[in-house]
Design brief:
elongated; 56% helix
Length: 305
């Protein structure tokens, strides 16, 4: 998913539109900055936005600019050997103007079909964090005990909540919460029950028999199981964003309680256990696999599409 900074469209327009009225046969020293900045803006814009139809006219415009302003600015000359000023050649300047007009026309046509939506903020949650780091909703120490699976589900839940999919958000949060319930269950009981008995009611029933189980954890687990989880996961229920937020807050309270209890029990998180395994390998070193950058050829002075 690409987070769109709408200012880039304004910045592109500011740099490109003046080229449609480029002064042909005027001194290059007076026009080169406008041309250079327009080319740089095209490079920046197309490195961020994967537009398809507009690629060809964009490359045409870049190549037209290259014939007047070289990519290596040190090669530019503003005066001839006889002292006469270098001007923007008529045909090259006219080609830039036509390419700029064509680029704007095609860009307009492509953006008309672009699907862009405004995502409203949900409560006090930052939209960006909801869509990228929804696990930050969980305060420490509960967040430290989120497994990789739980973190992935929280992120899915955040995106669902951002797009008003309350039922889906609750489904993912329930999955993430159960991951941490299982971590807590292992710490208190020692091993998970049989697969057929792996449900929130059975977890609560078995944990209640253990003297080391925290009363606050048991209270939240029973409350969510009876008041939220079963109704939330019923196929006939359609939940609003407000309903989802209420359920998520209850699950966060349960996870936070379990996190504090796990610290008291001295139970290590998934990340801590993995770190120990890495530190106990034969040579005590972590072998790092270098990242290989993909190499690809692109034409000089083009957008590389």
């Amino acid at each position: 998913m690409l987070r769109v900074d709408c200012y880039y469209f304004y910045a592109l327009a500011v740099k490109i539109h003046p080229l449609t009225d480029l002064r042909v046969s005027s001194p290059l020293a007076e026009e080169w900055v406008v041309l250079h900045e327009a080319r740089q803006e095209l490079f920046q814009f197309f490195s961020l936005f994967p537009l398809r139809t507009t690629r060809t006219p964009a490359n045409t415009l870049v190549q037209a600019i290259n014939r007047v302003v070289p990519l290596e600015l040190s090669e530019m000359r503003f005066n001839l050997d006889n002292g006469e000023k270098v001007i923007v050649p008529y045909f090259e300047g006219h080609a830039i103007r036509e390419a700029a007009v064509e680029f704007e026309s095609v860009l307009k046509a492509e953006l008309v079909g672009w699907d862009a939506f405004f995502v409203s903020q949900k409560g006090a949650f930052s939209t960006t964090e909801l869509m990228q780091q929804a696990e930050t909703m969980v305060p420490e120490p509960g967040r430290s005990y989120l497994t990789k699976k739980a973190t992935a589900d929280f992120r899915q839940a955040g995106m669902c909540l951002a797009f008003n999919l309350g039922t889906a958000a609750c489904f993912h949060v329930a999955r993430a919460t159960e991951e941490i319930i299982r971590e807590y269950y292992r710490a208190v009981v020692g091993a998970l029950p049989d697969i057929k008995q792996r449900n929130w009611g059975a977890y609560h029933r078995n944990l209640s028999r253990c003297s080391t189980a925290e009363s606050k954890v048991l209270g939240w687990l029973k409350h969510i199981t009876e008041e939220y989880r079963n109704p939330v996961l019923h196929p006939d229920e359609i939940l609003s964003v407000d309903d989802a937020t209420e359920f998520i807050n209850a699950c966060i309270a349960l996870i936070s309680s379990m996190g504090k209890a796990l610290i008291k029990l001295g139970y290590k998180s998934e990340a801590e256990r993995e770190a120990e395994l890495l530190s106990n390998n034969e040579d005590g070193q972590i072998a790092l696999q270098p990242l290989l950058a993909e190499s690809g050829e692109m034409g000089e002075g083009t957008l590389g599409f």
